[in-house]
Amino acid sequence: MSNPIQARTLGNGLMVITREVHDAPVATFWTWYRVGSRNETAGRTGISHWVEHMMFKGTPSLGKGEIFRSVNKNGGTLNGFTWIDYTAYFETLPSDRLDLALRIESDRMVNSLFDPQEVASERTVIISEREGGENFPTFHLDEEVTAAAFKAHPYGHPVIGWKCDLLAMTRDDLYEWYRTYYAPNNAVVVAVGDFDTPRLMERIEELFGPIPAGPPVPPVRTCEPEQEGERRVIVRRPGPTRYFTVAYHAPAANSPDVFPLLVLDAVLSGAKPMGLFAGRDTTMGRSARLYRLLVDTGLCTRAGSAFGLTRDPYLFEISASLRPTTSLEEVERRIFDEIDRIRREGVRPEEVEKAVKQVRAQFTYASEGVTNQAYWLGDLEMVCSYTLLETFVDRIAAVTAEDVQRVAETYLTPTNRTVGWFEPTVTVGAAEAPAGPLQAARRYWFYQAPARGTAGVPTLAIQRTRLSNGITIIGHARPETPAIVVRATIQAGAIYDPPGKEGLAHFTARMMQRGTSRHTFQQISELTDRVGASLSVDGTEHTIHISGRCLRDDLDLIIGLLGEIVREPIFPAAEMEKVRGEILTRLREQRDDTRSVSERCFRELAYPADHPYHRWAMGSDASVSSITRDDLASFHGRYVQPNRMSLAVAGGIDFDDFVDRITRTFSGWNASGPSAPFTVPDAPLPDRLIRRDLVVPGKTQTDIALGQPSIRRKDPDFYALSMADLILGGLGLSGRLGENVRDRQGLAYYVYSDLEATIGPGPWEVRAGVNPVNVERAIESIIAEVERIRTQPVDEGELADAKSYLTGILPLSLETNAGVARVLETIELYDLGLDYLDRYPGIINSLTREQILDAAARHFSTDRLVIVTAGPAR
Fold this sequence. Notes:
Blueprint: E1 5-9, E2 15-20, E3 26-33, H1 47-54, H2 66-73, E4 77-82, E5 87-94, H3 99-111, H4 116-134, H5 137-149, H6 163-168, H7 171-181, E6 187-193, H8 197-208, E7 231-239, E8 243-249, H9 258-269, H10 289-295, E9 300-307, E10 315-322, H11 328-345, H12 349-366, H13 370-383, H14 388-397, H15 401-411, E11 417-427, E12 431-432, E13 444-445, E14 462-466, E15 472-477, E16 483-490, H16 504-512, H17 521-530, E17 534-539, E18 544-551, H18 555-567, H19 573-590, H20 594-606, H21 621-626, H22 629-639, E19 645-651, H23 655-665, E20 690-695, E21 702-709, H24 718-729, H25 731-744, E22 748-755, E23 763-770, H26 775-791, H27 796-808, H28 817-829, H29 836-845, H30 849-859, E24 866-871
Parallel strand pairs: 2-6, 7-11, 15-19, 20-24
Antiparallel strand pairs: 1-2, 3-5, 3-6, 4-5, 4-13, 8-10, 8-11, 9-10, 12-20, 14-15, 16-18, 16-19, 17-18, 21-23, 21-24, 22-23
Helix pairs in contact: 1-7, 2-27, 3-8, 9-12, 9-15, 10-11, 11-15, 16-22, 24-25, 24-30, 25-26
């Protein structure tokens, strides 16, 4: 983030923050409003989030659905989300089309429509969104703990709102909220990317300047009184295992104590990802105190802490997912003993040094891409000041061990905590229903869609070589970035699991980093954590993936550990039993997850019993329990071979130098024995429509999986069928399905289709989450849309929009090293050729309506579908 930040305030009170970044022809525009659940009162909880939804319903000059269509057809991406302190909207576009974002945001700041019929349909969408969260035990626990922690301050309200308030909300309530809080004097716009600041400011002044300032925003006067004693909540309902959480009141972002608290958070469980879409990455922190205390000892499958920057004092939280045989009393005692030890004895200087390095590294990783940079600037301005960005690293680096002990003594006290237990009333598993007729406080996004990776990026200087032992290396140098991402792909996935040993590939992958001939798992974790790097191994359906991320100076360490993990795993017995327990607990949790339940049953019904895709990649309780160390060693020896491995690298590298380092690391490693073919057999379509309805106790939302086996990635129909799938359930607010099932009828928070064309005949699926009373209407509407796309040509306008989206969005893949590495990995895995990125626009633009209709008619069916529902009894 070396480029200067500029800020100014217009006459109407609108704050404008800009930063020029010319690394790629991409720019992002954000609009932030200082309104979230902290502004809400009893009876109006969830109103900020609901208004966010209504902001996508159009204006007099932007018809319903036009916001999404216009951004997508210009090759952009967009979304909005609501949090406790703010509501935010963004568009990331090719930089020459950034003006579209300015026109949209200036228009809907004052002209958004709140049509009563749209309010009514969105009510069911939002309730469906809440019910989707209610399907998870931790949702209930987090909600109860937060409500108990705050007696007075509105932070105790859930961002999504209480269901009774959502049922009672009126159109006038929503519109009044909009008119009160959506005004330039309560907003901040942030632009980062490839633009000229003076010209952009002229345009912002032209579009936003005439908007009048709104009335003074009602202040949040309530302060949470000091907590004077421990509070406890116990949640009892169906669930897979026990969960523990404890929340301590913590200071606001403007307190100097937030920096030692961020370091304390990293000491406890590693520094957390800071980017917009970072998620809950747990690959950093496996040498931290909570992991060693609870996961390494086999008591829990996950354990962590969380602390974020907020406008008012919020919470410092610690949580754990227990193994079924572990008691909540034992976990609580160990956590509180550890906290007391830190308060009494402090932390070691080397722990602080490691934590500081991790936080600084996460800050660097989060600085990749203009979207992340704009998010950081806006988020900090909402909770404190954007200027904090320029001093953040230095203030973290100044934290001492004494600072960490002081904040632990100040905030992590018994009287300042709220403790939550989740006790399952029954062990949950899905049962087949009687036959019937044909996701710090959570941010709530406007829509949820499948992770559709872009098919390519603008012309890149891609380099590729093949070593004498068969390892393929493909890379792209980005000398301006100090970070590097390495992704290794090995043809050793679940498709090779032998009968009765389902989950063997996944188990082998998990064990590869649990100890080598040179380092224990704990030593590997310590080495990567010490420099703020991450290294993870995962087994998927077709391959084993190894992902590494580090700063440029630490590349030798990551390459060395990568070589050990690949060549020298020793599968220690103690670690093997820990991993086995973690997998078995995860399988138990999946049996309580309606999405996993429906997906697993769909696979079993859609594919023959002897087909690799019939099996669950993680295995079953029985198969995982039967796997031995010899099984792991044998699988590794047979399939983890140099001629089955490729490496994709992106970031601050010199490609030739990287190749030299890999050559040295893997010198002397050669293939042994014949190589198993990297293929998957064909799969027939079902001979009839197959339906299963599964009951999962304690749920409020039903998840639907509908589809059939489909085509391979190399099928000649791939591009035409992908285009049909995009129009059906991916474009804009999830295509025709989203327009019908969500937007028009209000039946679901999420609905989309996804063509998983891979090495074999992967599934084509439609997924949706709906209230149980709406299941049949949703299925009928989905089938009707499938029938329409397979029997009627797509509209010329739809096709043009889809083509513009697929070709225009390509530059956005350049935003991060990880994005570039994923694209390179795809090019190599499917042998697309180094000129693929040059050919891709021509491939897309050559598709015709006739080709799309022909592919959809032959590959989409409405009478040979597999339909699975999983949810509460109906």
